[in-house]
Specification:
Radius of gyration: 19 Å
Mean pLDDT: 85
Largest sheet: 8 strands, mixed
Number of helices: 12
Distance between the termini: 20 Å
Strand content: 15-25%
Length: 313
């Protein structure tokens, strides 16, 4: 154990997990490394994917979720998207929540062993909402409702969407808890790590893999699946440039990304947490859940480095 790790051992921590789509899988690796360093996580708040990972951790089911998500291929991710034809968003989000409830169970936030808050946005009132009571997966479903992608979640007479819209790293909900340190995991950090080699290795491995009959059955050649693949591919950095402008969805998601990055800078300057773990926003695209193992490992690697560089105040 390094001197820095020794200084963190047995410290109580308020952990803040940021929004960022599939990049939020890095939270899993970050939590694992913080626990290895000996910290005691007593309060946790999150927006969007941070709320999802944080809630599953608080329910003591993160190992099961990690095992499941690391087995997902692209066709598996597509199979979890339930197309919505009535407006409000492209997907209903019910299949994802049903799968998570199957993994974790139906729990109320009040029954969790640590203080937990999921942050969402009430789009009718234009205000941030802290969800710290009631069914865990109502809170998570509200917090992950990316505008235009997932339908808003109607809950307690409110229309709720993704918490990252107003607060991508929600430090404030943890301030009510008296802990030794505040640790933030920001998955929208500056693009200072290049992952081309990781991607090349993954593509080589994929090319060598022969699909099983089960995998073939999960990817039917239907027009709906083709549309979903086009939807996913529209965000890819590897897509060849064309003379036409980016599609509506690509512009929307990139605009949200820019907005969340700007708000994150303001939040960090305001609250000045004790330790910030910065996962670069080019780690993966927001929809690349099939790269879970790579992103989790990256989160662990960056967290180890941040812990080793941490200087107690």
């Amino acid at each position: 154990m390094t001197d820095t790790q020794a200084s963190l051992k047995d410290k109580t921590v308020s952990l803040v997990l940021g929004s960022g789509g599939a990049r939020g899988l890095a939270h899993i690796g970050a939590i694992a490394e913080l626990r290895k360093a000996g910290v005691q996580i007593e309060a946790l708040s999150g927006s969007s994917m941070g709320a999802l990972v944080g809630g599953i951790y608080a329910a003591n089911k993160l190992d099961a979720y990690e095992e499941w998500v690391c087995q997902l291929g692209q066709s598996d991710v597509l199979s979890l998207l339930d197309w919505n034809f009535s407006g409000g968003g492209f997907f209903k989000g019910r299949k994802i929540i049903a799968k998570l409830e199957e993994l974790v169970g139906e729990l109320d936030i009040e029954d969790l062993p640590i203080d937990y808050t999921a942050v969402a946005v009430d789009i009718d009132q234009g205000r941030e909402v802290w969800l710290d009571k009631g069914p865990l997966f109502d809170a998570i479903r509200a917090s992950i409702a990316i505008p235009g992608v997932f339908t808003p979640h109607r809950y307690r007479n409110r229309t709720l969407v993704d918490g990252g819209l107003l607060n991508p790293i929600p430090v404030a909900p943890t301030l009510r808890c008296m802990t030794d340190l505040t640790v933030v995991v920001d998955v929208n950090a500056k693009e200072d790590i290049k992952l081309e080699d990781r991607r090349d290795d993954e593509q080589t491995s994929d090319n060598q893999h022969e699909p099983t009959s089960a995998e073939s059955d999960q990817a039917p050649a239907t027009s709906l699946v083709d549309k979903l693949r086009d939807f996913m591919d529209s965000f890819s950095k590897d897509r060849k440039p064309t003379e036409s402008q980016p599609g509506l969805l690509a512009v929307m998601m990139r605009s949200l990304d820019v907005m969340e990055t700007a708000i994150t800078r303001q939040q960090l300057a305001t609250f000045q947490p004790d330790l910030v773990i910065r996962v670069p926003k080019n780690a993966c695209m927001v929809h690349e859940f099939h790269r879970a193992r790579e992103v989790i490992d990256l989160g662990a690697e960056i967290t180890r480095r941040a812990i080793n560089q941490y200087q107690p105040q």
